[in-house]
Amino acid sequence: MPRRFSPPQGLLPRSRTSGRPSLISLAAALLLALSGLAWANALDGVLEVSSAYVNFDHGVIQLYSRVQYPLNPAIREALQDGVTLTFDLEARVDRVRHLWFDANVVDLTLRRELAYHVVTDRFVVRDVRSGDQKSFDTLKEALDYLGKVDSWPILVEPQLDGGRYIISVRAGVRRGKLPASLRALLFWTDDWQRVSKWYSWSLPV
Fold first, then answer.
1. Res 145: pLDDT
2. Is the backbone of residue 190 left (phi > 0), alpha (psi -120 to 50) or beta?
3. What is the pTM of this model?
4. Dist. CA 33–CA 30, nearest whole Å
5. What angle do CA 96, 162, 53 make, to 5 degrees?
6. Residues 8 and 132 sit within 8 Å (Cβ to Cβ)
7. I need a surface site. Which of 41, 78, 114, 182 has the fewest CB within 10 A?
8. Distance (Å, rounded) from C-alpha 66 to C-alpha 146?
9. Does residue 150 sit in helix, strand or coil?
10. CA gap 147, 69 in Å, rounded
11. Alpha-carbon span 56 to 116, nearest angstrom
């Protein structure tokens, strides 16, 4: 049972109603914080590069990959609450050197953002570099689109001077932008992210 403290003589006690706004604010903050803790499991599920290969097209080496991203109600809830998710596809090409460390030839990242638009009730994917956007009716459609990368040019043949090369691809997803109402409350989840294992194969030239 809480203790009661009487104010010093000569001082008037504060009104009991003066504490109500702060209690309401505290309750709202607590609810938002609990939402943030629930989002901590939003990235649970399968995250992997299921397949990848390259194609030579007029001297340009293009990457094709298929990625499976996690799909669950927590992701949908976070997006509908105004959180933006960032999806990265990393590609690197290394030249194998037997007597020294491998030499990196290419290290690229394809970055896209996924957000939910309340007015249109659609999920929007935006290419960060080009600014191109594409919208989808469902979250699954948006994730399927993000998981299919075709004809991504990663290097040109003159960059390869013979020898053995290793191509590696990795997918990642992390929390991006926060709405202003959540930015101060959920600052401790800035490291909310996941990456897949590297998918690697040899490219003899």
1. 98
2. alpha
3. 0.76
4. 5
5. 70
6. no
7. 41
8. 9
9. strand
10. 7
11. 37
